[in-house]
Each structure stands twice: as structure tokens, then as C-alpha cells.
Automatic annotation (TrEMBL):
Transmembrane segments: none annotated. InterPro entries: Beta-glucanase-like (IPR000757), CBM2/CBM3_carb-bd_dom_sf (IPR008965), CBM3 (IPR001956), CBM3_sf (IPR036966), ConA-like_dom_sf (IPR013320). GO terms for biological process: carbohydrate metabolic process. Keywords: Hydrolase. It comes from Nonomuraea phyllanthi. SUPFAM superfamilies: Carbohydrate-binding domain, Concanavalin A-like lectins/glucanases. SMART domains: CBM_3. This is Hydrolase. GO terms for molecular function: cellulose binding; hydrolase activity, hydrolyzing O-glycosyl compounds.
Length: 451
């Protein structure tokens, strides 16, 4: 459930060109690369490994960084999380994924979404880190790629591939399986979900048949003791309409939510056309209401590393210490309820977003990109990248109660929802696809496999 409390990683004497030749034949003689390594966590055991890297272009042609993969080899099958602490090339362009090898070994594959490396240049510092998903300490001294040096030196136990070909270093075991088609390549498009919200009401049997749940159960987020009411969810004119209201008491507070019944949405593109409102449809204004579009997984226990949540949250009257309207995009790694501990990152904009907006979240390659009306609003990633399939939800709820006299009702509406699995779809293409579905008379489509 969406909540925002703020939800909280020997410089060699031989000339470099000779080292490159001795260790590995480069992918292209004009694109000779060299990698230097140091660690800022040199202990044999550690809470997190901290490999710092510098990639050099000793060749004569520019190397597009999106063609480069760097592989750091680990011993053991534990589950790890990757993070970029700081990088001259910008952490927003750095990705990291763990790939299983034969037996119990694995490697961390570091890549780039953009940028280039000119002849004679280097990336300068890339301060990376990784840690066990259960936050336990681990032994790193037996990892193939680990070295205890705290000053940069050329390091051949980390392999570099350029355009799929080994260009530097000695992979663990001498070679990697099929480096031109690494197992980190994402699978192809895996189904679409589209809903035009053409329903007669919250009791329309097609809602359940099509995988929707209108919430009636109690609990958070929002005001303790408030009611989640299906009767306050309607579909006039084919618009999902959430009418949440309060009379200033918990017993007189009604909140609303529509959720997918199945957790079957993971990497891909999420999009919805949502209408936020600044003022109530009736009664006095001033409540701290939250209007949302988000994805989420359940928290099985405090600081569950497999928890995930990607939020659009609009607060027309502020809240959480904000005095007026504000839009948040928040990506969660995990949290603990009591005592409160949040692991998240967020981007905000203090402005009115009343009216209709096309909201898009792209989840791919270790990054989550949030768009508002085609404009890139936020780019998150690293430890906040989701690990497991999620539900899709819309809800409208109250942070607290202001105690004003009289009942006031706030309205959030949704025109359509679109999802494409394992595919990055631009906001413009989302609009074109939705228009084509509507032109074909398609009110609902779901080809996303059930779990």
C-alpha cells in the first residue's frame, strides 16, 4: 500500500599496451580497453563489498559505453543487491545485475545505459558496492575478482567485454558461457494489459473476471479505523472514479482502492491517464489527501529485501510536513514499521497537478524512469529496483484528519491503464497504442501470463 513518510552502498611496471596484449586480445585493435581496480572495504569479511573501478580507452576510436560489460566474479550462491554510490559518469547511467554461473558461482555484470569513452580517456571513479539481500556479513576474500589493494592498479581478474567480445582480463574459469548472448539479456515482450474501465459499477462481475479487486478490507495506509468502501468506487462514462470522504472522524472516513488481483507485473512499461484534483467535489477544503498510481509487493517481514514499491503520489493540500500541493515519485527497497525505518528514494515537484495527466513508469535494466505527460520526471535505480512481481493499484486516502466541520469528498479518476511486459515503451508510443486499441473497439485486453 502506498505510503510516503519519506520510505527509506602495485601499479604494474609493464607498459599498459603490453598488459592489454598479454591478458586478452581486444575486441578491436583500435578499441583497446584497460581496467583498474581498488577497494574501499579491504577486509576478508565485510557487510558490503566496495569495488571501485576505472575503465581506460587506450585505443584510437571512441567506445560507446552501452557496448561495454564489466564482470566481477563471486564465489557462492548467496543473493546480493547492487548499488552505485558515486560515479563521474553518473550513477544514473550505471547498471548492475548478478548472473548465475555453472555450479555455485556467479558474477556481477556492470553496464551502462549511455555515454562514450574517447581515445586516451577514462571513466574516472566508479564507486560501486554490493551486499547480501539479508544484510548479513559475508566472506569476500575467496571471490575470484576480489583484491585487497586500496590504491588503483590494473586488474585482470575482472573481465571487460566490448560489443560481446572479451577485451580485457581473465574470466573466472577462463571463459564465460556465450558472452555474445549473456543471460542478462531481457526476455521478449511478455503480454499486454489494457483496460478502458467500461464497467457498470463496483459490483460488476466483470471486474473480478478480469482480475480486479475493489478493496473492502480494513488496514493501512491512511487514517486508522477508516473504511475502505467499494460503494465509493464507480465508473461513470468509462472512468474509474474514486470518491474518498471524511467528516473529520475516523468512523466517518471513507477511502478507496482498486487493485489487480494477481501479482504478475514486473519489468516493462506501466502507464495510466489519471485526473488529480486540488479541491473537493463537496464540503470544505484542506484535508491531507493522497491520490495515487503505483505498483507494490507485500512486505513479508521487517526490512524484507524482496519488497518493492513504485509510486506516483499527489498531495493537493500537502502533508508529511509539506504546506501545499506536491507530486512525489518514490521507489522503495524496503521498510520497517515499528520502529519506523524506510529505505527509499524519491523525486518531488512542488506545483499543482490538478487535471488529466499521462503517467508512465518504465522498469528495465536496473532503472525506473517516471514520466509525466511525456516529460522525464524521475530516474531511479540501484538498490531500489524491484526484485519480484508486483500488483498494480490506484487508491485515494487521508494521511490524517484536520477536524473541519462537515463532510468533504475528494475525487480521483482514471481514464485507462496500459502495461507491456518486458518492453520499454515511450510515452508517445503508449498514447498511440491506447488510441489504436480504442479505435479497434477494445475495452479490455490481458495477455500477461498469470503466476
Amino acid at each position: 500500500m502506498s505510503r510516503k513518510f519519506g520510505k527509506v552502498l602495485l601499479s604494474l611496471a609493464i607498459p599498459a599496451v603490453l598488459i592489454t596484449t598479454a591478458l586478452a586480445a581486444p575486441a578491436n585493435a583500435d578499441q583497446a580497453v584497460r581496467l583498474q581496480y581498488r577497494t574501499s572495504a579491504p577486509g576478508a569479511t565485510t557487510a558490503q563489498a566496495e569495488p571501485w573501478l576505472r575503465l581506460f580507452n587506450d585505443g584510437t576510436t571512441t567506445i560507446p559505453l552501452n557496448q561495454v560489460k564489466i564482470r566481477y566474479y563471486l564465489t557462492g550462491a548467496e543473493t546480493y543487491r547492487f548499488a552505485c554510490s558515486w560515479a563521474v559518469v553518473s550513477c544514473s547511467t550505471v547498471t548492475g545485475q548478478f548472473v548465475r554461473q555453472a555450479g555455485a558461482d556467479q558474477y556481477l555484470e556492470v553496464g551502462f545505459t549511455s555515454g562514450s569513452l574517447a581515445p586516451g580517456a577514462n571513466t574516472s571513479d566508479m564507486q560501486l558496492r554490493f551486499y547480501r539481500s539479508d544484510w548479513q556479513t559475508f566472506t569476500q576474500s575467496d571471490d575470484y575478482s576480489y583484491g585487497s589493494q586500496t590504491s588503483y592498479s590494473n586488474w585482470d581478474k575482472i573481465a571487460v567485454y566490448v560489443n560481446g567480445a572479451l577485451a580485457w582480463g581473465e574470466p573466472n574459469g577462463g571463459s564465460d558461457p556465450d558472452p555474445t548472448d549473456p543471460p542478462t539479456d531481457p526476455p521478449g515482450q511478455s503480454g499486454e494489459l489494457f483496460d478502458d474501465f467500461t464497467y457498470t459499477g463496483s459490483n460488476d462481475p466483470r471486474l473480478a473476471q478480469r482480475g480486479w479487486t475493489v478493496r473492502s478490507s480494513s488496514g493501512g495506509p491512511g487514517v486508522p479505523g477508516a473504511t475502505w468502501s467499494p460503494s465509493a468506487v464507480s465508473f461513470p462514462g468509462g472512468l474509474l472514479t474514486l470518491d474518498s470522504s471524511t467528516n473529520g472522524t475516523a468512523g466517518g472516513t471513507v477511502q478507496t482502492e482498486l487493485s489487480t488481483a494477481n501479482r504478475k507485473f514486473f519489468e516493462g512499461t506501466y502507464a495510466a491517464r489519471v485526473r488529480f484534483s486540488d479541491a473537493p467535489t463537496s464540503g470544505p477544503d484542506g484535508e491531507h489527501v493522497v491520490q495515487t498510481f503505483f505498483t507494490i509487493t507485500p512486505l513479508r517481514y521487517n526490512l524484507d529485501p524482496d519488497y518493492g514499491e513504485l509510486d506516483f503520489e499527489y498531495l493537493p493540500n500537502g502533508g508529511w510536513g509539506e504546506p501545499s500541493n506536491i507530486l512525489y515519485t518514490t521507489s522503495w527497497e524496503t521498510y520497517q514499521g515499528d520502529p519506523w525505518q524506510a529505505v527509499n528514494t524519491h523525486t518531488l515537484e512542488r506545483a499543482s497537478f490538478a487535471g488529466w495527466h499521462d503517467l508512465v513508469i518504465q522498469v528495465s535494466g536496473g532503472r525506473m524512469k517516471y514520466y509525466v505527460d511525456g516529460r522525464l520526471f524521475a530516474d531511479h535505480g540501484d538498490i531500489y529496483y524491484p526484485e519480484t512481481p508486483m500488483w498494480i493499484m490506484f487508491n485515494q486516502w487521508f494521511i490524517d484528519l484536520q477536524g473541519a466541520t462537515g463532510t468533504r469528498t475528494y475525487r480521483q479518476q482514471v481514464d485507462w491503464l496500459y502495461y507491456s511486459g518486458n518492453e520499454v515503451v515511450s510515452p508517445a508510443d503508449v498514447g498511440s497504442r491506447v488510441a489504436a486499441l480504442r479505435a479497434a473497439g477494445t475495452a479490455f485486453k490481458d495477455t500477461v501470463p498469470n503466476p
